[in-house]
Amino acid sequence: MNTEKDFSPLTPNIVRALNDKLYEKRKVAALEIEKLVREFVAQNNSTQIRHVIQILASEFALSQHPHSRKGGLIGLAACSIALGKDSGLYLKELIEPVLTCFNDSDSRLRYYACEALYNIVKVARGAVLPHFNLLFDGLSKLAADPDPNVKSGSELLDRLLKDIVTESNTFDLVAFVPLLRERIYSNNQYARQFIISWIHVLESVPDINLLDYLPEILDGLFQILGDNSKEIRRTCEVVLGEFLKEIKKTPSSVKFAEMANILVIHCQVADETKLTNDLIQLTAMTWMREFIQLAGRVVLPYSSGILTAVLPCLSYDDRKKNTKEAASACNHSLMKLVTPEDDEEEEDEKSGSTGSPSKEDGQPKTEADGNDMLNASQESVGFSNISFFTPASADRPQVTLDLDGIVQVLDRHLHDSSTGMMTRIAVLKWLYHLYIKTPRKMFRHTDSLFPMLLKTLSDESDEVILKDLEVLAEIASSPAGQTDQASSCDSTTVHKLELKVPEGAKSGQQPNTGSKAVDSSPSTPSMNSYFYKFMINLLKRFSLERKLLENRGAFIIRQLCLLLHAENIFHSMADILLKEEDLKFASTMVQTLNTILLTSAELFQLRNQLKDLRTQESCALFCCLYRSWCHNPVATVSLCFLTQNYKHAYDLIQKFGNLEVTVDFLMEVDKLVQLIESPIFTYLRLQLLDVENNPYLIKALYGLLMLLPQSQAFQLLSHRLSCVPNPELMRTVDESKYMDSKQQAASKRASHTQMDYNELLQHFDRVQSKHLEVRHQRSGRASDHPDRKLM
């Protein structure tokens, strides 16, 4: 520094001392400067005061010489002390050169700068608040300083500044938030500690409403929550907890919509191996749960993103029990927000200015159409494109359910083979709920959902299959699905069927499925055009997946009988099987249906309906079943036994001599004998007591006996027939009255049946001829094969 230069009003001695390398001499010079400035203050000579400050700043604090810079810093602090309350008039000139020294490479100089600023702020107190952003910016750099002395000095200054802000009621939060939003994304541990401590302080000041600006810093808070430092994480948890408490107290003033996507992002774990991510996810899910409960329908536009985050968590194990429970609560609360109101067409669709038709209902929204409803699961942490939804003044906010987005998310989880069981169940519950609450809009998506719903019937979990069947049953029975013709996914003609409404369903109650009670449908479950489509595709799936038919076929059909009425299921399947080209599958399917008909408790009412054939409807059902049952001779006989058509059963058995008797055939006869001994056929066994009026029953049973080889079933049936009493012993005294009553019962039954049994026998012959022809063709191909050996 040029000592010859004029630094007046600073004396040469002061200038030399300020440039000295010894701290004590610089301190003496500072005392002289303080004395000099006090004189100027007393004289009210602001010009000289500014001149002194300008010399200390430009010639010393910003000098190239380190000792000069140290002297300038202590000199500026001395000026501030001398100015006292008036220092506020010169704060800009005092603070800026000191803050510049915060960037000095010399750690000692950075420490002196921190010390000088401490003295300036201590004197000015609240007057420094207009310069708060500059101070905060400088302190945030010192917080990460590698030198412990500098860091210690910055902490003292930090505490002083926090005290000033806490005491003041003029803090400019609006000007500060942009800087806070910028610095909150620092990855430095000490900088994060500094930031989170300031947020904690500001949040605790009653006169500072930081909650209004929470959307701007919430993402950064969750970033800090993932810090490796346990202390920082704990402080961040406390801050987030305080914010959540305040949100619960004043929900009406909270900008829920602006924070929804931030929570969606942090509810999704990118790296499950990091324990801090678990904490972020649990905290975000907890916030999401509270948001849904407090904000209600305001969050509906974000429902697709919320489901993307929530659904995978439902399959977590006990290691993430808390997250799973929070996710389950979110899912349940969000589902309750969907109401029948969401099935109403939007006003802009109803009153289009051009009156031209809109896009096809079945098409989902394009990416451009959905810009207003950001799917947070597919976006990065940038919120410039988020559309904010704020509560309207009315009691219920005017929001739109993002149904297309929800369906896409649900469909994606169904297609993903890695999706956990509980998640799949939740997806199906959502689909069922949407079909109940918004059936008209949901049927736009049915054609795209239908194949996956059918495929889900092959799931390993019984509970998943049950929920899947509930969805399919609702699709098949909802009035919203009633169209002139079902959408064509196959070439089969849809036949008009007289379908029954399930008992109890007319009153709006769903049949009991044996599991937890399902939400009752408000619609009358009359079968729609999708019902027959469902039956066709279900049988196709059984045909292509024989393991599914063997392992789950009976289970699926029994549940459908509960959901859609047994008569509907059996009538439609029999009608479809009548035209089945794969005769072997048709025979297997008839055998499965027959076993279900004869053994399942769910079909008790249908069995009673068929037992007497007293109505035209029951006779029509019998004829429909009979024609398909002809694919399986033994099943046809059992159907005749069930309907008490004993003479026809005897006629059929007489024709068995012309059929190819195979081991499988004999095994079916064996099973029929076992069934005759079961409670289902109690009435049949009792009719053996009335020998004279049931001769064909006895003949039919003897016919079965003659078909059987000497086996356990043979012995069982033989023993039963040996118990048939002598007709002479069974005659009563008043035989004429007894015979009259029997004849009356028979005539009453005959008056309703009026069936052409000869035509039914001819149909049986035609079907069996086809089966025989197919078997001969197969055996011919087998004999022609050079490597095939005949057994």
UniProtKB/TrEMBL annotation:
<keyword id="KW-0677">Repeat</keyword>
<dbReference type="GO" id="GO:0006661">
    <property type="term" value="P:phosphatidylinositol biosynthetic process"/>
</dbReference>
<feature type="region of interest" description="Disordered">
    <location>
        <begin position="333"/>
        <end position="373"/>
    </location>
</feature>
<feature type="region of interest" description="Disordered">
    <location>
        <begin position="502"/>
        <end position="524"/>
    </location>
</feature>
<dbReference type="InterPro" id="IPR026825">
    <property type="entry name" value="Vac14"/>
</dbReference>
<dbReference type="InterPro" id="IPR011989">
    <property type="entry name" value="ARM-like"/>
</dbReference>
<feature type="compositionally biased region" description="Basic and acidic residues">
    <location>
        <begin position="358"/>
        <end position="368"/>
    </location>
</feature>
<dbReference type="InterPro" id="IPR016024">
    <property type="entry name" value="ARM-type_fold"/>
</dbReference>
<dbReference type="GO" id="GO:0010008">
    <property type="term" value="C:endosome membrane"/>
</dbReference>
<comment type="subunit">
    <text>Forms pentamers. Component of the PI(3,5)P2 regulatory complex/PAS complex, at least composed of PIKFYVE, FIG4 and VAC14. VAC14 nucleates the assembly of the complex and serves as a scaffold by pentamerizing into a star-shaped structure, which can bind a single copy each of PIKFYVE and FIG4 and coordinates their activities. Interacts with NOS1.</text>
</comment>
<dbReference type="GO" id="GO:0070772">
    <property type="term" value="C:PAS complex"/>
</dbReference>
<dbReference type="Pfam" id="PF11916">
    <property type="entry name" value="Vac14_Fig4_bd"/>
</dbReference>
<protein>
    <recommendedName>
        <fullName>Protein VAC14 homolog</fullName>
    </recommendedName>
</protein>
<feature type="compositionally biased region" description="Acidic residues">
    <location>
        <begin position="340"/>
        <end position="349"/>
    </location>
</feature>
<keyword id="KW-0256">Endoplasmic reticulum</keyword>
<keyword id="KW-0967">Endosome</keyword>
<keyword id="KW-0492">Microsome</keyword>
<comment type="function">
    <text>Scaffold protein component of the PI(3,5)P2 regulatory complex which regulates both the synthesis and turnover of phosphatidylinositol 3,5-bisphosphate (PtdIns(3,5)P2). Pentamerizes into a star-shaped structure and nucleates the assembly of the complex. The pentamer binds a single copy each of PIKFYVE and FIG4 and coordinates both PIKfyve kinase activity and FIG4 phosphatase activity, being required to maintain normal levels of phosphatidylinositol 3-phosphate (PtdIns(3)P) and phosphatidylinositol 5-phosphate (PtdIns(5)P).</text>
</comment>
<dbReference type="Pfam" id="PF12755">
    <property type="entry name" value="Vac14_Fab1_bd"/>
</dbReference>
<dbReference type="InterPro" id="IPR021841">
    <property type="entry name" value="VAC14_Fig4p-bd"/>
</dbReference>
<keyword id="KW-0472">Membrane</keyword>
<feature type="compositionally biased region" description="Polar residues">
    <location>
        <begin position="507"/>
        <end position="524"/>
    </location>
</feature>
<feature type="region of interest" description="Disordered">
    <location>
        <begin position="772"/>
        <end position="791"/>
    </location>
</feature>
<feature type="domain" description="Vacuolar protein 14 C-terminal Fig4-binding">
    <location>
        <begin position="546"/>
        <end position="724"/>
    </location>
</feature>
<comment type="similarity">
    <text>Belongs to the VAC14 family.</text>
</comment>
